[in-house]
Every structure is written in C-alpha cells, then in structure tokens.
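dumping this here so i dont lose it
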C-alpha cells in the first residue's frame, strides 16, 4: 500500500515524530555531517538513502553551503517523506547546493541506474529493514564512487526519556516498553522477505562489502530535564509509538498506563511533567571504497 515499505511500517504516518526527532538530534549530528564531509574534496555528491523527513541531509546541505557547494540526492520509498525532505533540504541548502529527489528503494536492483554515483552515501536506520543486510551493504557500496565513503547509522544506545517511576502503574515502564520493542524488532526481522542472519557487527559487515579504513564512532543525544516543549511532545509520541509497536507483548496493566500517560485530557498526561529528558547515542559506521 502507498506509504508502506516492505517492513509494513507506515512511515508517512510517522512524519510528525520524524520531524521532532530530527530537530532534537540536530545538535549532536551536525558534527557527524561535518566529520564525514571533511573526508571529501571539491563539490561532492551526497546520496541519502532512506532520507525520511530529511533531517540529516539538512545538516549535510548546510555544511556543503559553507564550503564549495555540491549536490544532495534524496532517496525514499515514501512520497510524503520524500516531498518533506526535499522541501526541508532546499530551504537549508542555498544556491551552491543542488537538491535532487528520487522516489525509490534500496531493494531496487536497478537503483544504480537511477541515482548518480556518490562521493558519500549515507543510510540511517535503513539497512536493518532489509532481509539480507550484508547484501544491502554491498548494494550501497556499489553506489559509491572509488575513493568515496559509505556511512551508516545503525545500533547505538536506545533512547531513554522517562523516570523509573512515573506515578502510574508499576515502576520500570520504559524498560518493559524497550524490551517489548526488542521482541517486536526480532519478529520484524524474521518476517522480512529473504531474511538471513548477520551474526557479526557492522564494521565487519562494511569490510565484507569491500570497504577499507572502516571506523565507528558515536553521537550522544542528551537533552536533560526539565526539557523543552518540543521534547515533551516528542516523549508523548515516542511512548505511544513504543506501546503501539509492542501490541500484545505488553500486558494489560502497562497498556492502561500508557493510555493514561498519553491522554491529553487526563491528570497523568506526560506533556505536563517537568522531569522528562532524552538520553541515548547514535552509532555511525563508515568506510572508504578503494
């Protein structure tokens, strides 16, 4: 169906949450964009595979505009996200940065014919939605010019946002939400077409895809309490989304607790709290194509 990818997630429906996450992550990820583009020269072409709402490419475009310019190519399978990303990146880019939008999917075997070869290929939270992750990395590597860089954001430390005891239901709600999310993720991976195990870490997977000078580093996302209005709104969205993903993996008591915490008319609505925060880390893995 329109708006759904092969993992059966309706990404268009999550647009508001993606926009909020982009805003909250920008401070931590701007140095990542600077670091990755610092490995390139001239007027590079950047390809953002699975660009979502465009948050990372906005940061790339700003860095390109500060330098000698370049090209940002946005690729996404969800038209609503692609349109939002193109708008956001165009607004941020300036005249020296060309912005191109391509409707497509990493699983397309002819993708290399539809996008230009890139000096930097970026894919955040994309590869784990493909059944054969190692094959997906090889496909991404084929989009990189010789001497260029492939960088992915996968793994890291799961975001935390709630106190241990929120005053409703049993303490430890967030830990149970994340545990249920982990079970959901394992089921999602097992159900993907052509799903195969990749029983090793991302740096080795990049080397297996033919990359050299492989490295990994982290970006800390740290928004301490009491948090901004944006953060509080994001936490409400995130808690509801985690519970929705978990479904019956959560017991009835926890589902009732989440309903109370996300009810804007109820006395326990999360957005009225002053003790919410956001703490976690993105993991970035990258390598150079010989």
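and the seq i came up w/
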């Amino acid at each position: 169906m329109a708006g759904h990818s092969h993992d059966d997630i309706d990404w268009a429906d999550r647009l508001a949450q993606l926009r909020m996450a982009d805003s909250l992550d920008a401070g931590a990820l701007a140095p990542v964009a600077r670091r990755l583009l610092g490995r390139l020269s001239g007027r590079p072409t950047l390809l953002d595979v699975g660009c979502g709402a465009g948050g990372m490419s906005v940061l790339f475009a700003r860095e390109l505009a500060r330098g000698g310019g370049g090209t940002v190519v946005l690729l996404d399978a969800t038209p609503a996200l692609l349109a939002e990303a193109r708008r956001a990146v165009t607004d941020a880019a300036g005249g020296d940065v060309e912005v191109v939008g391509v409707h497509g999917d990493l699983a397309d075997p002819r993708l290399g014919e539809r996008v230009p070869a890139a000096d930097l290929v970026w894919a955040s939270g994309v590869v784990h939605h493909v059944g054969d992750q190692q094959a997906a990395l090889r496909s991404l590597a084929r989009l990189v010019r010789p001497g260029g860089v492939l960088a992915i954001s996968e793994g890291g430390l799961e975001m935390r946002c709630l106190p241990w005891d929120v005053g409703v239901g049993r303490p430890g709600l967030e830990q149970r939400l994340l545990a249920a999310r982990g079970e959901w993720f394992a089921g999602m991976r097992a159900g993907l077409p052509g799903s195969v195990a990749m029983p090793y870490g991302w740096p080795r997977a990049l080397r297996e895809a033919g990359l050299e000078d492989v490295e990994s580093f982290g970006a800390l996302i740290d928004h301490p309490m009491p948090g901004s209005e944006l953060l509080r709104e994001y936490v409400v969205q995130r808690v509801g989304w985690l519970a929705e993903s978990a479904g019956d993996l959560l017991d009835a008591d926890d589902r009732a607790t989440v309903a109370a915490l996300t009810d804007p008319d109820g006395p326990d609505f999360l957005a009225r709290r002053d003790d919410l925060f956001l703490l976690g880390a993105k993991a970035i893995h990258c390598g150079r194509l010989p």
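Residues 1-7 have pLDDT under 50 and may be disordered.
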